[in-house]
Design brief:
Length: about 120
């Protein structure tokens, strides 16, 4: 099972990759929404969770989330928003669009590990 992190911040992608590896997952990375959807095209059968930033150039995270949930090949994949946007409106829009979790940045390793496990249906660490 693989995780896919879609974030324009290389640092955040690396941090999430490290946490995913610590939990025993291979982590695929994409630097924007369009690239993330291309990764899903190739690896959708193996991706068990998408970790998605809201603010990215080009396609924003909410639009990526909607595209994932609109595609019958991908709609079963849980999506967790990982973003600096902590306002209630952003959270509500994400959940309404199909996100299973919402993690604000910055986060600790423990917080992210727990959220990943919850999103994968395994409870906390």
């Amino acid at each position: 099972m693989k995780l896919l992190t879609i974030d324009d911040s290389r640092t955040i992608r690396r941090v999430i990759s490290g946490i995913g590896a610590m939990l025993g997952y291979e982590v695929l990375e994409a630097e924007n929404g369009e690239a993330g959807l291309k990764v899903l095209e190739q690896f959708s059968q193996e991706v068990g969770l998408v970790l998605l930033d809201w603010n990215m150039p080009g396609m924003i995270g909410l639009d990526v989330l909607k595209a994932i949930k609109a595609d019958s090949r991908w709609r079963h994949i849980p999506v967790m928003m990982v973003t600096t946007e902590g306002e209630k409106d952003y959270i509500v829009k994400s959940i309404q669009a199909g996100a299973c979790h919402y993690q604000t940045k910055p986060f600790t390793q423990e917080e992210m590990a727990t959220r990943i496990m919850e999103a994968m249906g395994m409870g906390g660490v």
